[in-house]
Amino acid sequence: MIDKIKGVFDKKNVIVTGGAGFIGSHVCEELLKKGESKVICVDNFVSSHEINIDPFLQFPDFKFIKHDIVAPINLSSFSELAAFEIEFQGIQEIYNCASPTSYKDPKKLPLQTALTNSVGLKNVLELAREHQAPVVHLSSSVIYGDPLPETKYFKEDYWGFVNPWGERASYNESKRFAETLCSIYREQEGVDVKVARIFSTYGPRMKMAEGRMIPDFIANALDNKDIVVFGGEETKSSFCYVKDTVDALFKLMQSNESEPLNIGNDKEYKIADIAQKIINILNSKSKIVFEKPLPNFQVQGLPDIKKAKERIAWFPVIAIEKGLEETIRYIESVRFHYEEKGLWQTDTPGGNGG
C-alpha cells in the first residue's frame, strides 16, 4: 500500500540530517539541482552555520527544521513540513550527515558527538524503518585509526587500530559504534542502510579557523600571511573534492550495496605543493614555512577505492587545481559575510587536517 501511495507523487521526500554542515549542505544543493526531490534539512547548528543553506531557503522544495537528532524525530510536529504531505507520501530517502565535532578542539563537543553518533543515529534509523526508506550513513576514515606499517592504503576489511581513551575518541569510537548500529538495523530490522567511509574531503563551505588545512591555507594566502605546514617538505595527504564525494553518496543510495565503501581520493599530494598551488592561484605573497607536527597528530592513510569502482562505478574525477580554484573563489565571495558573522579568523596558522 505504501509503495502505491508513493507512486502518486512526482518528487521524493528526502531528509538530510546535518544538512547545514559542510558535506550535508552540498547534498541538499545537488538534490535541489536535480529537481527530483523535496528536501528536508535537519540541523541544530552545533558545528554548522545557517550561511551554508541561506541560498536554498527561497526554494519551495526546501524546508529547514532546527532539531537535534538526539531527540526523537517527530516530523508531524513541524508545521512547516505540511506542504510535503509526509503523512500521505512518507519519506523516500535519508542521508545521515549529522556528526558535530571540532577538529581544532576535540574536547569541545565530546558528549554531543558521541550521542549524535549513537542515540541520534538510532533515531534516524527508526525513522527509516517507519517509512521503509533507504539510508546513506556517512561514516569516516577515522574508524581505521593509524595505517599499518606495511601499507598506507586502507581496505574495507581492515578492522582498525583506535585508541578508545584518546582525545579524539568521542568522534573516532562513536563512528565505529555507528557502523555497528547500522549493521544491526540492516540485519535485525530490515533497514536498507548503506555506509560511506569518507576520507579527507575539501571544498566550499568548510568551516574556517578549525585547523582544516585547505581553508586555513586559503585564508592566510588571501592576507599574504605565512602558510604553515606541520611536517617536512615530503609530508603528504589525499584530498577529495566535495562534489565527487556527493556524487559517490548518490550512487551509493541507488545501489544495492550492503557493505561499507571507502569514498575518497587514492592519489597522494605533497602538502607543500597544495600550499604553492593556492599561492599561485591567488598571486599571493605568502611564504611556506615548516614546523614540527602537532601533538597527537594522527597519520592519515589513503583509501583503497577498488570496491567503490567495481560496485557503484565511482571514482573521483575533479582535478585538484579545479577544486582549489572553486574553493578559493567561494571563500573570496563570502569573506565579507563571514567577517560580519564572526566566522572569519586568520590568527591561527593552518593545520594539516583534511
Automatic annotation (TrEMBL):
Cofactor(s) in the UniProt record: NAD(+)
Keywords, alphabetical: Decarboxylase, Glycoprotein, Golgi apparatus, Lyase, Membrane, NAD, Signal-anchor, Transmembrane, Transmembrane helix
Keyword Acetylation: no
One GO cellular component term: cytoplasm
NAD-dependent epimerase/dehydratase domain segment(s): 14-264
Membrane-related topology note: Single-pass type II membrane protein
Record bears the keyword Transmembrane: yes
Domain of life: Bacteria
GO terms (BP aspect): D-xylose metabolic process
Subcellular localization(s) per the UniProt record: Golgi apparatus membrane; Golgi apparatus, Golgi stack membrane
InterPro entries per record: Epimerase_deHydtase, NAD(P)-bd_dom_sf, UXS-like
UniProt GO molecular function: NAD+ binding; UDP-glucuronate decarboxylase activity
Short name of one Pfam family: Epimerase
Protein's UniProt name: NAD-dependent epimerase/dehydratase domain-containing protein
Species annotation: Candidatus Komeilibacteria bacterium RIFCSPLOWO2_02_FULL_48_11
Lineage of producing organism: Bacteria, Candidatus Komeiliibacteriota
